Every structure is written in structure tokens, then in C-alpha cells.
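dumping this here before i forget
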Amino acid sequence: MTQLRVLTLAACLASTSAFALDQGEYRFNGFGTAGITHLGGEDDGRSYGVNGQTNDSWRGDQLSKLGGQFQYGLTDTVGVTVQATAKPEQDNWKANLEWAYLSWQATDGLMLRTGRLRSPVYMYSETLDVGFTYPWLRLPDEVYSQVQVSNYEGADAIYTLPLSFGSVAFQVAGGQAVNRNIFAADELYDIDYKKIFAANVSLATNDFGTVRLGYTEADINTDITARVTTPFGTQTTIPLNQLDDQKGKFTSIGYQYDNGTWLTANEWTSRVIEADDQGSTDAFYLMGGRRFGDFLAHVTYAQLDEDDGRQTSWTYGLNYNVTPTVIVKSEYKRVDTSGNGYNGVFVEKAQESYNHAVYSATNGLAGTPSRNYDGDIISVGVDFVF
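structure:
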């Protein structure tokens, strides 16, 4: 398979308007990741990650997934796209309908879509599950653990304007994502995102890479509570996070560049939730890499800042293109947290958080003191498309 064919295939998985089908034409593409990961440095069974799937066992459910995308041209300008995946959610594998929408190529530059669509939150939102389209085996957790909803029901409009040196694309989207799951305190809870509004603009140049600016907001409803044991041995229910139509706002700025030899990907994000008694959550990553034939060496620095503390990490990766459609990836990531017992993306159970609060409230007479976590994460796997 030629490199041009591979690039076209990867772009199809992003479902841009540049690849609209004629009436009666169809296209099927598949993608997936098979990988394992391990957390070292924390010897008490500590877990890490958006679903707590990275721990001191070699596990494949943090990284592994399989997906397929089907597109069909109903007319020369109207088409249907369906994308489904099978991937773990916490400790169980689950089938997911990621995309299911109708698209209308209204003009050469304007596409309208309606149905279930990807939430345009991050720079890599459109290909979130297609690891082949980005250099890492696992996306930087400091940024990509913040908003767990990956799709919504609604509509969007994408307008692409060609320029002499590239193109600029504008996207406006709206809808809702209800009855979704959110991972917190080592459990899954229900969460609703209503009145979603998103807008972003991307400037893609022929020689200097792509810049993307995005903004998303939604009214959030969730009730994260847990049963814990008090120092007196009784059971009680404590609130961990309760939001009732509270506005959440997410801003991102991204830049990526790849000339075939050198590449870089960078993203900065800021998240604010009104009336949750917290300030903004700010995060960023900076990645640089170089290809040596079929090998790609890359390094990433990432940082997550919240009121309670900071998480930083360094990731060193080496990829090998076995074939034009198969990439073997390996990564070593060092993660450190600092602050007043700040745990970052490390997972604490509700009982642990409660014990830390009791210790603080009783001046150390009861409970357990909070502490920071650190660790070394090793990941090895294969990304593929077909």
C-alpha cells in the first residue's frame, strides 16, 4: 500500500468533507490498538489513568481497542457515516457507537452533519480512538483525562475555505450528551452534558503546520457520592462532586507540524466549572520528534495544574513502521505530583479521600495523612489501520 493511500485512509477516519462519496459508493475502514502497560514505583496497588486501568500488573485494557467505520453515499451530496468500537470501560469490555450521522455537502466548502458526532473538544478528538494518527501509544493524560465524554447527539456545520498557502476550517456544533459515564474515585457514575455549544477554527498551511483554536461549553449534571466508614465504624454517605446544571467551559489551543522528518504536537487547555468551589484546571504538553528511516523517536513534556497541586511527566517514545499500515510503539513515562496531597491522574478511592479529610480535620488524631504519588509507566503496543 502506498504512503499516499495510507494518508488518505487515515484522513477518511477523520471524516472530513474532502472525502464525500458519490451516490451508491461506500467505504469501510478498520483500525485498532493492541498494547500492554505497567505502572511501577507505587507498591500499594495504586492505579492510574482515566479509567484506572494502569497499575502494577501488565494489562492490555488501558490501551487495546478495535474499531470500524462505514460510509455510504445516499446521493452525490448526502451520505451516512457509522463508526463503532470495542474497548474497555474500567474493567469490562464494551461495544460503543461512536458516530452515526447524516452529512450533506451543501456547497464545495460547507458540510452539515446531524446525529451522533464526536465532541470537538481536543485537537485529536476526531481520531481519538485511531492511535495510528498520532505519535503516542497513549495520549498525554494530563490533557486528555479532563473531559471524558467523547461524543454527543446534535448537529454541526463545517466550512472550509481554500487559501493560496493552505486552508482554514470553521466548525460550529451544538447538542447534548446524556446518560454518559464518568470515572471518579475508582467507580463509574452517571453524568449529563446539556446545551453543548462548541466552536473551533483550524488553519492548515502547506509548509508551517496546523494551528487550532477551540471552545466548548455545556451545562453539567452529576451526583458523585460514596459510602465510607467513619472512625467510629459506622457507614455514611459523603458527596464527592455534585453539579446541578453548572456551566462547564473548556478552551484549547493546539499546533502540529510534520514535514516527514521532523514533527511536533503541542496543546494547551483550560477547564472551568462554575460553582464547584475550584479554580481553573490548566494543562499542556509539548512534543518533538524525528524520523530515522522507519523509526520515530519522540519526547513529550506534560503538565497539569489545579488548585491543590501539579502533575508533571516526561514521556520518551520509539516507534517502528513495520508496514505502511502497522506501527509498533514503545514508551516510557515518568510521572510526578506535588502539592498538598495532590494525586493528579493517580486514582484514589472514596474511602482514602475521606480518611485524608478526617486526618486534616482532627489534626492527625484520626484518619490517614494524604501524600503525593509518582510512578514509571511502560507501554508497548501496535497501532494499525486497514
